[in-house]
Design goal:
seven-stranded mixed beta sheet, disordered N terminus, six-stranded mixed beta sheet, 618 residues, alpha/beta, 20 strands
């Protein structure tokens, strides 16, 4: 029997069915290759983003920022660094509302920040090596304040508002601060703005229904001092904002003092109304964070148009063995000791502040003698203000321009000053006291302008073919004693602004360039003076009124907020005698009983003034 063999003829002969299936098979293989190539060319990060799973218990999930959960579908974070960021930035949300756009927080208080470690799926942890770089640090904004529009008229409305039956017989004696009261181990992230709300209450614990209370706020650490901006809502509640730069993370104290109740600091005689009670001293730890604030840049001309500053003093050196010298000075660092940018530029040692320096929405250059003379050469600066100007001029001459032959600057001062190292350089300083039409008198302030002879004296400096190129003015301390109420001061400030507007129009009509006007706000009176007729509530209010009036008459080119600059140092008399921050150094017993006093706050003002005068050249 013949052996059976396989019949393969069906394979070899043409068969349309086989050919059809073979074509389909080849096309499938080809498409498969294309798919493999396509996958190889895909963005694997995108692929992983779509399928990443974060496993959290319900209690842990609430501690994470919603923007973090949202960003898992947008960009793959580095979880190690991101969870550290969560610890630092989001454990405080029960305590404060932060100003950050397009971010919604879910509040959670974490008692032990270091132990807060969300559970992560093993799959997600395993894939960290192929993830994209961590999210870029968030760019935040600096805290800021501003002058209320129509400040003078709105102030009058509030001041004259009837108290009403419920409010007329009650006064604030304390506050309720629910976000901080009774909370232990308060921790906030640095960099962010943390806003808090508190309610003033009367002696029965009932909420006050009107504003007008004056609260002093202070935020102080080893290397940072600032005044947290506070806002009066008008119904007995107030808000304030805290912010510390990440470079200065650490332990702080927030202090809140009730100085005056319901505009009583604006009264004619204020000593009998002062309350001056420390309501809270709250320890707060600001945690280091990866958030970024815009880098401070050196102030330019346009930076001096801001009505209200929200600055801070930062410390960049400290010498605990520094003692007062025979001439009353504190040379705690060498004069050449450098500033730490971006907080300042130049030699920090010349400030004689043992490392402290002021900055605001921009920073300042601590100028050398040569730089100051190069800027001021052949200029004429006209000063119109109280006796603080006398101190500032003297300090500029002694410490900045190195002119030692003028130990005292009197209330009426007009002199061409020559550079002792270069006789070709000269600047003219003219200073006219505005506390009284008679330079030996006091307590008239802006009312001095009712004296015709005094007005003509002022006009005389602006009536020639050569006029001052800059006018630096201030007012306040003497006004605080003269004006019996805020309505009358508003009228006086309006008259002063209109007077100077007429003077400057006369300059322009003669074809001359009118002087640039710099308004230097009145200092924050310190220590014992906080209760007097030129108390901080009245001086801050008067500053706002004068700024409002000068701006309405077009008589305001630049502003230097010396009120903000002096505020962190006004709680005692270490840096002031109550009304002056620039008294000449002297090795003698000071008002607070210590030998010598600190003068660096006014010296900082001198450098700020040089910056404003020379914004294009320093």
């Amino acid at each position: 029997m013949p052996e059976k063999s396989a019949n393969l003829a069906w394979v070899m002969r043409p068969n349309p069915v086989v050919h059809s299936w073979f074509k389909i098979l080849m096309m499938g293989v080809f498409l498969g290759i294309l798919i493999v190539w396509g996958i190889d060319g895909l963005n694997m990060n995108t692929f992983q983003k779509d399928f990443a799973v974060l496993k959290l218990s319900s209690s842990e999930a609430i501690g994470l920022d919603s923007s973090f959960r949202k960003n898992l579908s947008v960009e793959k974070p580095n979880l190690d660094s991101r969870f550290e960021d969560v610890d630092l930035n989001f454990t405080h949300q029960m305590l404060a509302q932060t100003h950050e756009k397009n971010v919604e927080f879910e509040p959670k208080i974490v008692q032990n920040v270091s132990s807060f470690s969300p559970r992560v799926s093993a799959d997600l942890t395993l894939n960290q090596s192929v993830m994209s770089p961590p999210l870029s640090p968030r760019i935040l904004q600096w805290v800021s304040s501003g002058l209320e529009a129509n400040f003078s008229s709105n102030l009058l409305v509030k001041w004259l508002a009837p108290l009403g039956e419920h409010c007329k017989d009650s006064k604030s004696v304390d506050i309720r601060l629910p976000s901080l009261d009774g909370v232990a181990n308060i921790e906030l992230s640095s960099g962010e703005i943390h806003e808090f709300v508190f309610q003033a209450v009367d002696e029965t614990g009932e909420p006050r229904c009107l504003g007008g209370d004056y609260f002093e706020t202070d935020l102080s650490g080893e290397r940072w001092k600032s005044r947290p901006p506070i806002k009066d809502i008008g119904n007995g509640s107030y808000t304030f904002s805290l912010q510390v730069h990440p470079d200065f993370a650490g332990d702080y104290n927030l202090t809140i003092i009730l100085l005056f109740r319901h505009y009583e600091g604006l009264k004619f005689s204020t000593a009998k109304f002062v309350f001056d009670k420390v309501l809270r001293v709250v320890p707060i730890k600001f945690l280091k964070s990866s958030s970024h604030l815009p880098r401070l840049r050196q102030c330019e001309t346009t930076d001096y148009t801001r009505d209200v500053w929200s600055g801070r003093w930062t410390r960049h050196a400290r010498n605990d063995n520094c003692s007062i010298s025979k001439d009353g000075r504190y040379r705690c660092q060498k004069a050449s000791f450098p500033c730490q940018q971006p907080w300042c530029d130049g030699p920090l040692g010349v400030l004689e502040s043992n490392g402290w320096v002021y900055s605001s929405h921009c920073s300042f250059k601590l100028v050398s003698t040569q730089q100051a003379w190069s800027c001021l050469n052949n200029r004429w600066i006209f000063w119109w203000g109280d006796s603080n100007h006398c101190d500032t001029i003297r300090n500029i001459l002694h410490f900045i321009l190195d002119v030692r032959g003028i130990p005292i600057v009197p209330r009426i001062f007009d002199m061409n000053i020559t550079n002792p190292r270069n006789a070709s350089q000269m600047v003219r300083f003219t200073s006219i006291f505005n506390g009284h039409p008679n330079h030996t008198g006091n307590y008239q302030g802006l009312n001095s302008l009712i004296n015709k002879e005094y007005r003509e004296t002022l006009k005389g400096y602006f009536s020639g073919n050569i006029v001052p190129d800059t006018m630096i003015m201030n007012s306040g301390l003497h006004d605080g004693i003269f004006w019996s109420n805020i309505r009358r001061f508003i009228k006086g400030a309006d008259y002063a602004a209109s007077f100077w507007a007429d003077v400057m129009k006369g300059v322009s009509r003669r074809g001359l360039t009118r002087p640039k006007i710099i308004y230097r706000t009145t200092v924050t009176t310190g220590g014992y003076a906080r209760a007097m007729a030129f108390n901080p509530q009245k001086m801050e209010t008067f500053n706002g009124v004068v700024l409002d009036k000068l701006r309405r008459y077009g008589m305001l080119d630049k502003i230097i907020d010396d009120f903000d600059m002096t505020y962190p140092w006004h709680y005692d008399n270490r840096c002031n005698d109550g009304v002056h921050y620039g008294r000449a150094p002297l090795r003698a017993r000071w008002r607070d009983g210590q030998i010598g006093h600190q003068y660096f706050v006014d010296l900082m003002l001198g450098h700020v003034l040089i910056n404003a005068l020379c914004a294009h050249s320093v």
